[in-house]
Amino acid sequence: SPILIFSQNVGNNIMSIILGPHEKVNPTGVIIKNVRAYVFGDDDDEKSSGGGADCHKQSAGHWIVDSDIANPMSVYSEYRKSRTSWGIDAMGTIIVEVELSNGMIGVGISIG
Asked: Where would you tag: which of 56, 78, 79, 101 has the fewest CB atoms within 10 A of its CB?
């Protein structure tokens, strides 16, 4: 039987998460129409622009990537010199747009 994980009143609607087999849901009102995600096309573009949301995507010489500062990998000599030597900047900035059926678009930005 289905398990109700979460249910909450949102305005005049009830939002629910149900796991397991359940009756088909026919949504009414506003629903998500589309989700789009974007990343910088080139690592150098992101670094030269100042890093977007990722403070570690900086050009060589920037203090956050190329100074002797404590980081989780400082105990290993090969990773002590730069935070980016162990991959902290591997994913970069991601921008997500969520479009609703009423035309509203929300935008979020984070580190991928």
From this structure: 78
Query: Cα–Cα distance between 52 and 6 in angstroms, integer?
Result: 34
β-pairing, 32-39 vs 93-100, is antiparallel
Cβ–Cβ under 8 Å, residues 54 and 91: yes
The set of residues, in sequence order, having a beta carbon less than 8 Å from that of 34 and lying 6+ positions away, is 97, 98, 99
Q: What is the pLDDT of residues 74-107, one digit of tens each?
A: 788 877 777 777 777 677 778 899 999 899 999 9
Assigned token pair, 27: 């949504």
d(CA 67, CA 55): 14
Q: How far is CA 42 from its chain centroid?
A: 18
Any idea which residue has 């939002």 for tokens?
Answer: 15
Q: Which residues pair with 36 in a beta bridge?
A: 97
